[in-house]
Every structure is written in C-alpha cells, then in structure tokens.
C-alpha cells in the first residue's frame, strides 16, 4: 500500500493521473513463466506479445531477460528494431502484412508466420528473386476446437477467422503453393487461438499442431508455436477459482509434444507468446478524486481518469482498487466512481462499498497492464504518463503529452484553405 504523501509526490511529478509499472513484478512473471516450460522441455523460446502493452520501457525490461519480440504489425516490428532487438529474435505474426513488410522481415532473417493466401505471393516473389537464400516461413493453422457442440473461442464464436483452414483443404493448398518454389521451406506451425484459456484447450491445440507437423512437414518441422493467451495471477475481485498456473500449462503442453513427437529424431523448438500473463498485474493506475456529489440519492466520485484507462476492452470484471485518503477517519459508504469523459457509461466502479474518498484523495487500480496503454484512445484528454519503479528509483517511462505532441504540425493542417470552387462563388 502506498502512502498519501508518496502518491501526492508522484502526481505532482506527472501533473496528471498516471500508470505505475512495477518492473520487479514484470521480471518475476517472466521468469516464472519461462522456468515453468524450460524446466520441462529443452528448446523453449518466449516471445513477448507487443500488442498487449508495447511501452518501450517494459519491452526493454523483458528483452534484457531474454524474451523475443512477437509483433503483429509493421509499427510494432519497427519498434522492436528501434529498441535494438536482433531481427532474428523477432516473430512477425498478424493477419495483415504488406508485401514490403514480408520482404523486409525475410531479408533481415525474422520468423514470419503467414496468416492468409495474400501473404503467400510476396514470399514466393522474394524467394524467386533470392534463389541463393533458403526462405523459412511458418503457417498459422485453423482447425475446429469444438467439443460436444461447445466452442471454446472467446465470445462464443464457432469459427476462428485466422489462419489456413485444415478441414476445407486450404492448409494443404498453402503447403502446395509454397513447395512450388525450391528454396521456400515451411519450418513450423503457429496455433494461436483466442479461447477460454483452459488447460484442455491448449492440450488440444498442441496435439493437433504436432499431428499436422508430423503428417505434412515430417523431419523438417523446426518449431511448434502455441501462441499466447495464458492466464496469469488473477485478483480476488475477479471471482474466478481453479485458474490454471504456469506450471499447469507447461506440464500439459510439453507432455503432448514429448508424446506425439517421441519418434522424431529431434524435438522441435517450442515457441510461446505470452502477453496478459506477464504485464496485467505489473501495472497500476493512479487517479485523484476531483469531486464527490449526490444525485437523487446516488453518490458519484469524479476522478481524473476514465474507464478507458483501466478497461479499454470493457470487460465485466472488477479490478482491485485501494482508496488512499488524507484522513484516518474516512467513513464507509456505497458510491460510483466516474471518469472525466462526457459519456454516461464512463464508470470505473459501480455500486462500490468502501471508504468514501474526499476531493484530493487517491484511488489505485490494480491489474491494469494489459491493453490499457495500447488500446487506450487519447479521447478528450491526453494519455496519462507512466512511471516505472526500477529498484529504489522511480523513472518517467512516458511523459505527459503536450498539445504539440497530441496534434503534431507534421501530421495536421491547422489553417483552413478555401478551395477553388469556393473562391469562384465569391
């Protein structure tokens, strides 16, 4: 728990509400995740999912621990290069890669997992232009995960929109097209699905990838990429029980690989791409109470933050929160915490029971590290700055934005210029 004086000093430094990154927690999460798999399987690579939170300071922290960069856009790819990541340590995924993106990644030696037929043509073009180079790529595979008529995909979707479908022959067709050019080799399979995150689903994904790899790639199978989406540590406020641990996932996945691929001359590399499980509980959001008012018997606490800062995906779970007051005699009560936007639905908390804060007090929301910094629009106010705890020091990992940074003149036109038609009418 932070003291009021500590939070007040940090806010004075930021001149705003702010995110607080705990690098020790981030490091601990990565090391526990990596150890869970590497202690059970020899060849393991962990690629941090940039899209979950591509704060450069956080990415650098993870790269120094040995994490690869898993990116899904040219923007993220270029960021990884800017951070000094070796191109061979970048995994390029995602459903939309341009020909230029693919050519650059292949030229630099990054691992590219293809998602659709639109990405195959650029690979073939590049390979024909570089016959001396062995062009290694992976394929994202799409297969049915439904069991007993129930789909484990998020939001209840029955069919995933990603990858090459096995059942309708598209996966086999992609392999045939790539095999037509002698210096192209499909080196691995990518099986990321957005699911309910159960251990059973990961076991199912791992088994199908292994069987497809044996049947279609044989001894050329260099890697199995399971993807991400694993649960990490969850707060009690989520009300979830029996959540799998890193060890639960690792035991299930590695056991499948060893069993299914026992007869191969060498086991393939196992690639994992965690995001939420590493950063979610490593970031807190600190906002200050601006006003407290009552409307027809309902108490509203206005803060200088927004639900977009803590739950941009609008999930239904209540984040853990601490109320840090100036008074030791704060009374208990029920209230709603609302944000600075003009939207009625901007509730950070609804019907919350606890200490009733006063203007100037602080609320600290935990478990705020996943998607909040990347999926958080600069809507009405600038994006909050980020402080990072590094040992005993607290550094500014992202400053508060200025108007010039919010609306850079290099991007926006500020002077209205009448068109020729309007000039003619005068």
TrEMBL record:
Question: GO molecular function, one example?
Answer: diaminopimelate decarboxylase activity
| Protein name (Swiss-Prot/TrEMBL) | Diaminopimelate decarboxylase
Q: What high-level taxonomic lineage is stated for the organism?
A: Bacteria, Bacillati, Bacillota, Bacilli, Bacillales
Domain Orn/DAP/Arg decarboxylase 2 N-terminal, which positions? 32-280
What keywords are annotated for this sequence in UniProt?
Pyridoxal phosphate
Q: What would be one Pfam family of this protein?
A: Orn_Arg_deC_N
Gene Ontology biological-process entries: lysine biosynthetic process via diaminopimelate
Cofactors: pyridoxal 5'-phosphate
């Amino acid at each position: 728990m932070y003291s009021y004086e500590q939070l007040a000093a940090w806010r004075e430094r930021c001149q705003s509400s702010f995110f607080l990154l705990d690098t020790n927690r981030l490091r601990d999460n990565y090391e526990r995740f990596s150890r869970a798999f590497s202690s059970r399987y020899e060849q393991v690579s962990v690629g941090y999912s940039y899209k979950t939170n591509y704060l450069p300071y956080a990415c650098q922290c993870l790269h120094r621990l040995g994490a690869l960069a898993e990116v899904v856009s040219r923007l993220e790819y270029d960021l990884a290069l800017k951070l000094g990541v070796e191109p061979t340590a970048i995994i390029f995924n995602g459903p939309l890669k341009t020909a230029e993106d693919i050519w650059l990644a292949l030229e630099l030696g990054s691992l590219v997992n293809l998602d659709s037929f639109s990405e195959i043509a650029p690979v073939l073009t590049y390979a024909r232009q570089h016959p001396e180079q062995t062009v290694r790529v992976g394929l994202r595979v799409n297969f049915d995960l439904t069991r007993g008529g129930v789909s484990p995909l998020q939001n209840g979707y029955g069919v995933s929109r990603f990858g090459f479908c096995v059942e309708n022959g598209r996966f086999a067709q992609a392999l045939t097209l790539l095999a037509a050019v002698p210096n192209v080799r499909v080196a691995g399979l990518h099986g990321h699905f957005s699911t309910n995150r159960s251990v059973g689903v990961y076991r199912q994904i791992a088994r199908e990838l292994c069987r497809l790899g044996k049947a279609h790639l044989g001894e050329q199978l260099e890697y199995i990429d399971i993807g991400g989406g694993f649960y990490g540590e969850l707060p009690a406020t989520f009300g979830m029980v029996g959540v799998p641990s890193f060890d639960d996932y690792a035991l299930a996945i590695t056991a499948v690989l060893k069993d299914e691929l026992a007869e191969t001359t060498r086991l393939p590399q196992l690639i994992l791409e965690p995001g939420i499980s590493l950063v979610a509980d490593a970031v807190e959001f600190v906002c200050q109470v601006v006003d407290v008012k009552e409307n027809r018997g309902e108490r509203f606490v206005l803060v200088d933050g927004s639900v977009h800062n803590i739950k941009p995906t609008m999930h239904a779970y209540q984040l853990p929160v601490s109320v840090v007051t100036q008074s030791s005699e704060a009374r208990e009560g029920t209230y709603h915490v609302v944000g600075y936007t003009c939207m009625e639905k901007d509730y950070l908390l609804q019907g919350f029971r606890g200490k009733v804060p006063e203007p100037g007090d602080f609320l600290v929301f935990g478990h705020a590290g996943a998607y909040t910094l990347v999926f958080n629009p600069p809507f009405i106010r600038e994006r909050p700055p980020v402080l990072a705890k590094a040992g005993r020091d607290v550094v500014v990992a992202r400053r508060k934005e200025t108007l010039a940074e919010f609306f850079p003149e290099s991007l926006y036109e500020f002077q209205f210029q009448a068109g020729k038609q309007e000039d003619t009418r005068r």
